[in-house]
Amino acid sequence: MPCISCRQRFGLIAVVAALVLAVGWLLRSPEPGMLPVPAALAASSTASDAASPSVDQVVGKAADNAAALVDPEAEARVRAAMGALGGGSAAIDEVRSTPVADIYEVRVGSRLLYVDGQGRYLFLDGDLIDLQARRNLTRERIEEIEAIDFSSLPLDLAIRQVKGNGKRVIALFEDANCGYCKRLRADLVRVDDVTIYTFPLAFLAADSESKANRAMCAADPGKAWNELMLHNRVPDNPGTCATPLEKVRDLARSLGITGTPVVFFANGKRLGGYAPPERFNQMLEANSAS
């Protein structure tokens, strides 16, 4: 069952619009936070101010360089073809070989396209599946690209909650008005032995910011955030204390987060959207192993 992200209902509209507006539009880096699409298609920010971390500073690097070797002449043809489609403005980050002969992976931020080695045919929308191994190679690559160094996260900006021995650790980006975030939060109540670092975001509704500020200004921010997410109880305070909400917003932008919820596991793997309890628990266990 696929993960579901708040604002995902606009995903289909975004894809159709992209087809209408031509392939070149897809190759231009979108304005950070302006594309409410699923995490698998969310573009990483490239035009933030100089103080913001670049995508290359936060995304994971390819582990197997040998698999990424590309014939230089084929790469040149692919880049030329894609550049022509983008009117010379195509921001291609990487061209890699695939297990399919003469088919190359083109990475634009965290989006993947597939082009033949002659630069003539483009697979615009779809995943590369290994039918024999029953593996979604596109999904695996996106997970690799979107992975981060967990230790680089500024955890001092987050609300910290420890359950049980807290040995399993996650970082969670949520909006107080996100319905799927609330479903995930309700599931997390039943998860033991976990430390949750919550980074509140405020972009889904006009009162998202005030709700987040009030929770973070409460005497017990963790309890206040749970009450807000689980029971819609807004803390009874003015929410005027100093909070790191703006820094969290910048952090989310640098990580290419355009929808909620987003979870980062201890090994840096990213889960964009809501996953049912059984699947989430499996992922938590698998990605918490040392």
Q: Give helix % range.
A: 25-40%
Approximate strand percentage:
15-25%
Distance between the termini: 27 Å
Structural class: alpha+beta
- Series of H and E elements: HHHHEEEEEEHEEHEHHHEEH
Physical arrangement of strands within the biggest beta sheet:
7-9-8-10-11
Count of distinct strands: 11
Roughly how many Å is the radius of gyration? 20 Å
When the domains are counted, the total is 2
Please mark out the parts with pLDDT under 50 across 5 or more consecutive residues, or reply none.
7-67
Largest sheet: 5 strands, mixed
CATH fold-type name of the largest domain: Nuclear Transport Factor 2, Chain: A
What are the salient characteristics of this protein?
11 strands; 2 domains; five-stranded mixed sheet; four-stranded antiparallel sheet; 10 helices; about 290 residues; Nuclear Transport Factor 2, Chain: A
Structure explained in plain terms:
There is one protein chain. This protein has two domains: 8-146, Nuclear Transport Factor 2, Chain: A (Roll); 150-286, Glutaredoxin, CATH 3.40.30.10. Helices cover 32% and strands 17% of the residues. The chain is built from ten helices and eleven strands. The chain has helices at 11-21, 23-26, 55-58, 72-85, 137-146, 179-188, 208-216, 221-231, 245-254, 277-286, and strands at 94-97, 103-108, 111-116, 122-123, 129-130, 135-136, 159-163, 168-175, 194-201, 262-265, 270-272. The two termini are 27 Å apart.
Draw up the topology in text:
Blueprint: H1 11-21, H2 23-26, H3 55-58, H4 72-85, E1 94-97, E2 103-108, E3 111-116, E4 122-123, E5 129-130, E6 135-136, H5 137-146, E7 159-163, E8 168-175, H6 179-188, E9 194-201, H7 208-216, H8 221-231, H9 245-254, E10 262-265, E11 270-272, H10 277-286
Parallel strand pairs: 8-9
Antiparallel strand pairs: 1-2, 2-3, 3-4, 5-6, 7-9, 8-10, 10-11
Helix pairs in contact: 7-8
